[in-house]
Amino acid sequence: MPATTWFNGFLGYDCDNLKGVQKINWDTAGNQFHLAWVNEDVNVNGVLTYSAGSNLLYGSGKEEDCNYYYYGLDWNTGENVVRERTSLTGTFIKQ
């Protein structure tokens, strides 16, 4: 049961980004994928992480206010249950 998301690039992408996360299920009997849910409200950019303990799918992305946010999406419904601002644009340490 994979989840997919748009990829807007690493650093330096605009604040008005493509949004969307989808969960797809594999139907072994029908030998095809089925869309389980879609969340069009968040820009999750990069690798998603699933926690069996919380049943949440975690990721981060940039919103229209140009701030980065950390999200937790309910694995069963796609509902956004965690939204925490992590940093202002340009405040990450560059190494």
Q: How does this structure look, described?
A:
Strands 4-5-6-7 form a four-stranded antiparallel sheet, with no helix packed on it. The chain is globular. The protein has 95 residues and is mainly β. It starts with a strand and ends in a 7-residue tail after the last strand. It contains no helices and seven strands. The protein is 0% helix and 47% strand. The protein has one domain (3-88): Thrombin, subunit H. The chain has strands at 3-5, 21-27, 32-39, 49-51, 56-62, 67-74, 80-88.
Which properties best describe this structure?
47% strand, 7 strands, 3-stranded antiparallel sheet, Thrombin, subunit H, 95 residues, 0% helix
How many individual domains?
A: 1
pLDDT under 50 segments (min length 5)?
A: none
Q: Helical element count?
A: 0
Mean pLDDT: 83
CATH top level?
Answer: Mainly Beta
How many strands, what sense, and barrel or not for the largest sheet?
Answer: 4 strands, antiparallel
β-strand amount: over 45%
Strand arrangement in the largest pleated sheet:
4-5-6-7
Under CATH, the topology can be stated as: Thrombin, subunit H
- Total number of strands: 7
Structural class: mainly beta
What helical percentage do the residues reach?
under 10%
Shape estimate: globular
How widely separated are the two ends? 36 Å
Radius of gyration over C-alpha positions, nearest whole angstrom: 14 Å
